[in-house]
Write a structure and sequence with these properties.
This protein has 558 residues and is an alpha/beta fold. Helix content is 35%, strand content 17%. A 6-stranded mixed β-sheet has the order 5-4-3-2-1-14. Helix 7 packs parallel to helix 8 and helix 9 packs across helix 10. The mean pLDDT is 93.
Length: 558
C-alpha cells in the first residue's frame, strides 16, 4: 500500500493558511498514488496552541477548518490532527484528536490517550484523555490511530514508563495490524536517534508496519524537526523525511503478510545505528536557523538586528540569522566603548563583510560619559563597579532597540546558555531583544559550532574563536575573571541544570566544592533575570524557559 506522509509546517491560529497548505499537499500525495494520507498532530490549529484553547472562538475556527478540509477530501482518506470538543462530563472540555476524512466528510474521530505533563508539555491542562480505543477498518487493514505520546510508552524500550496504559498494544489486541502516529514532537539534541530507535522497537516487537508523521517548523521556543518515518513490520525504515524542512513522502509498505520470527528476536531486530544522521553540529545549525526563520516570519517580521562585538557568540548568531533570513535582512551593529579593543572592531567588520550584511558602527563612548556625569554627584566617593560597567551594556541595548523601532527589525540577543545560567548578562542591556537564539547552547558547544561553520572556509574570523572571551566592560577584562574555565563551568551546569544533580553528587564527580557552590549560587540568584529574558530556542533536553519552572523567591540550597 502507498502511504502519503505530509511533513508540514503549520502556524498557530492561521486556520485558512494551514488548511490550504494541508490540502495542496494532500492533492500532491493523491496525484502520486497515495492510498492513505497522514498529517501531523493538531495541524489545523498549530502546535502548541496553549491557552488559546481557552478561547471558544479559537476552538470554533479550528472545527470550521476541519469541516473545510473534509469537504475537499476525496476517496483517498486523510488523517489529520485537530482540537475536538468533549461532550462527556465530568471532564475537560476538549480533546487532542485525529480526524479520518474521506469522501467529503469526517468519517471517524480518534482521541489522544496519553497526555504529557512534563518539560514543555501541559496537555492535561486542556484535554481529556481517551478512555477507549478502537481501530479503523480500511481496505484489507485494521488501522490503529495514535497521537504522539501514545506511542512513547513501549514497555520493552523504556526502563521506566510514565503511564500505565500502552495504546499501541491495546489497539493491536483489538485487531489493529497497521499503526499510524500523528506527532508534534519537538527536537532536542539526540532526540532524532532516540525516536528512531523507539519506533523501530515498537514496529519490530509488535510485528506491525508503522507510519510516523512529525510536524516541522518553529513555534516560539520549540523547534520541530520532522524526520517522519515509515517502518515495515520487521522494524526497518522504508522512508524517512528530511530534517528541519517540509517534505512529502510517498512510501510503499507491504501489509500483506506477518513477519516470521526466529527464536532469537534480538538477532533479527534492526540496529538504529543503521540509520545515517548528520553530525550534531549540523543538526544544531539547522535547528537554530529554522527557529529564527519561523519566529521572525510567523511574528510578521522580515528583518533582524544584532550587536556585533567581535566575539564568538555574536558571530555565530549572525551566521545563523543569515542562514535563516538571507544577508539582506540582517543588520550587524558595532557599539565600541573606550574599553573595546581595536581587534574586536576589526573582527566585527570582517564578519559582516564575510556575511555580506549591512554593518553600522555606532560608538557609545560619548553617551556613556553623559550618563556617568548624570550620576557624578550621587556616586561621589564610591568605587567603580558593575553599576558603571552595566551602563555600557544598557546603552547598547537602547541603541539596538532604537534601530528596531526605526526599521521594524527584531533584535536578536547573543547570550549563550553558560552566561544566562550564571547571570553573566545585563538585564535591560545585552538581554534586550525579541529572541535569544543561543540561550540553550553552552559556550563549549558554541566553540564546536563555530569550527563546524568554518569547516570549508573562514566565515567567522579565527581571532573571534581563539581569543579569550570578554565582555570588554573594563580594562583587560576576561570572562574567567569571575567564572571558572568554560570547560569546567559547562560540565557543572550540565550536571546541575540539565541532569538535576545535587551539589554532593557534582562534587563526587571530581569538581572542587567551592567552585560548585559558587556556580550553584549564581544560578539560583539569577533566576529573576531569566524570568525577564527574551524567549530562547530550545535545543537541549533541559532549557531555561517554559519547561523549567523554578521559583524566584526561595531559600532551598542543595
Amino acid at each position: 500500500m502507498k502511504i502519503g506522509l505530509l511533513q508540514l509546517n503549520s502556524t498557530i491560529g492561521d486556520f485558512s493558511g494551514n488548511v490550504r497548505r494541508l490540502m495542496d499537499a494532500y492533492s500532491d500525495a493523491v496525484s502520486q498514488g497515495a492510498e492513505l494520507v497522514v498529517a501531523p498532530e493538531l495541524f489545523l490549529c498549530g502546535y502548541p496552541p496553549r491557552d488559546l484553547l481557552m478561547r471558544s472562538d479559537f476552538v470554533r475556527r479550528n472545527i470550521e477548518a476541519l469541516e473545510q478540509a473534509a469537504a475537499e477530501t476525496g476517496h483517498v482518506p486523510l488523517c489529520v490532527g485537530f482540537v475536538d470538543r468533549n461532550s462527556d462530563r465530568p471532564g475537560k472540555p476538549l480533546r487532542n484528536s485525529a480526524a479520518w476524512l474521506c469522501d467529503g466528510k469526517v468519517a471517524h474521530r480518534r482521541h489522544k490517550t496519553l497526555l504529557p505533563t512534563y518539560d514543555v508539555f501541559d496537555e492535561a491542562r486542556y484535554f481529556e484523555p481517551s478512555a477507549t480505543l478502537a481501530p479503523i477498518p480500511f481496505q484489507s487493514l485494521t488501522v490503529g490511530v495514535t497521537i504522539c505520546e501514545d506511542i512513547w510508552n513501549d514497555q520493552d524500550f523504556w526502563p521506566e514508563r510514565q503511564y500505565r496504559r500502552d495504546p499501541v498494544r491495546e489497539l493491536i489486541s483489538q485487531g489493529a495490524n497497521f499503526i499510524i502516529n500523528l506527532s508534534a514532537s519537538p527536537w532536542c539534541a539526540g532526540k532524532e536517534k532516540t525516536r528512531a530507535a523507539m519506533l523501530q522497537r515498537v514496529a519490530f516487537d509488535e510485528g506491525v508496519p508503522l507510519v510516523y508523521v512529525n510536524l516541522v517548523g518553529g513555534n516560539d521556543e520549540l523547534i520541530f524537526d520532522g524526520h517522519s518515518m515509515a517502518l515495515n513490520a520487521a522494524g526497518r525504515v522504508v522512508g524517512k523525511g528530511r530534517g528541519f524542512a517540509e517534505d512529502l513522502l510517498i512510501v510503499e509498505i507491504d501489509t500483506s503478510s506477518p513477519i516470521a520470527r526466529t527464536t532469537s528476536p534480538e538477532a533479527q531486530r534492526p540496529s538504529p545505528t543503521g540509520l545515517e544522521w548528520p553530525c550534531s553540529e549540523e543538526l544544531l545549525y539547522h535547528a537554530l536557523s529554522l527557529g529564527i526563520r519561523d519566529y521572525v516570519n510567523k511574528c510578521g517580521f522580515k528583518q533582524v538586528v544584532l550587536g556585533l562585538s567581535g566575539g564568538i557568540d555574536s558571530a555565530v548568531t549572525a551566521v545563523l540569522a543569515v542562514e535563516a533570513l538571507g544577508a539582506g535582512n540582517v543588520m550587524g551593529v558595532a557599539m565600541p566603548s573606550k574599553f573595546s579593543s581595536a581587534g574586536s572592531l576589526t573582527d566585527a567588520e570582517t564578519l559582516a563583510r564575510n556575511l555580506d550584511i549591512r554593518f553600522e558602527k555606532l560608538p557609545i563612548e560619548a553617551p556613556v560619559a553623559a550618563v556617568e556625569q548624570q550620576f557624578a554627584g550621587v556616586f561621589a566617593g564610591l568605587a567603580r563597579n558593575e553599576a558603571e560597567e552595566n551602563i555600557q551594556s544598557r546603552l547598547r541595548g537602547l541603541t539596538l532597540m532604537a534601530l528596531s523601532n526605526k526599521f521594524g527589525s527584531l533584535v536578536l540577543t547573543t547570550g549563550n546558555k553558560s552566561e544566562v545560567a550564571v547571570g553573566y548578562c545585563t538585564l535591560y542591556g545585552d538581554m534586550c531583544g525579541a529572541l535569544a537564539v543561543i540561550a540553550d547552547v553552552f559556550k563549549t558547544e558554541i566553540y564546536r559550532l563555530s569550527r563546524w561553520i568554518n569547516r570549508e572556509r573562514e566565515i567567522i574570523p579565527v581571532n573571534s574563536i581563539t581569543k579569550p572571551p570578554s565582555a570588554e566592560l573594563r580594562p583587560n577584562q576576561t570572562d574567567q575573571d569571575s567564572l571558572p574555565p568554560y570547560e569546567v563551568l559547562d560540565q557543572i551546569l550540565d550536571a546541575y541544570v540539565v541532569r538535576d544533580l545535587s551539589k554532593t553528587e557534582i562534587v563526587a564527580l571530581g569538581f572542587d566544592a567551592a567552585v560548585v557552590s559558587d556556580v550553584i549560587n549564581k544560578v539560583t540568584f539569577s533566576e529573576y533575570k531569566r524570568r525577564q529574558a527574551a524567549p530562547g530556542l530550545k535545543v537541549s533536553s533541559r532549557a531555561f524557559g517554559m519547561g523549567r519552572r523554578i521559583p524566584i523567591a526561595q531559600r532551598f540550597r542543595t
